[in-house]
Amino acid sequence: MEPSPLPVATDSVLRDLYDAHGPVLLNYLLRLTRGDRHLAEDILQETMLRAWRNLDTLVTEVLAVRAWLYTVARRIAIDHIRAQQSRPIELGDDRLDQRADPDDEVERLLNAESVRQALASLPDRLRIALIEAYLRERPVAEIAAALGIPQGTVKSRTFYALQALRRALEGRGFTFPD
Q1: Taking the model in full, what pTM does it have?
Q2: Distance, CA of 31 to CA of 106 (rounded, Å)
Q3: What is the DSSP string of 26-93?
Q4: Looking at domain 8-86, which of 1.20.144, 1.10.1740, 3.40.50, 2.60.40 is its CATH number?
Q5: Residue of 6, 12, 20, 18 lying closest to 53 (CA atoms)
Q6: Which residue ranges does the record assign to the RNA polymerase sigma-70 region domain (predicted)?
Q7: What is the DSSP letter of 103?
């Protein structure tokens, strides 16, 4: 359930409350959060939201209000710390490749682009042999006739093209089983 909009009088009271206690409370929260400004500001915002929800019960004494705000802010900070401690440890991205989903479309697109770049880096004679043999799936005799070279040359170019392609892909971070 969303809170209703602030009446003008309540808005000014909350603004005065924030102006009087916000900067001091933020400094306190920065110490509690070990300098994490974003977290400290989030806690301050939550504290002010709770103050707004309890405006009718807050006393008007400045020191009593400040003590209440400090208590609420400290409890919210403790809740954040406990929530962070209960979360599983997040691993860095150094092991991300070990968890890659083989069916991930983005990963396939990136791999396909890397293969295209590696293929483009090959000399023409090797690249053409690979394209004809593996992408167009043409038989060796047909490739030899189309290029006007002996069948043995097609076979050797294909062999050397695969080796060169493997080296080019390894240079782009790909690994292959031995």
Answers
A1: 0.44
A2: 42
A3: HHHHHHHTTT-HHHHHHHHHHHHHHHHHTTTTS-S-HHHHHHHHHHHHHHHHHHHHHHHHHSPPPP-G
A4: 1.10.1740
A5: 6
A6: 17-86, 118-166
A7: T
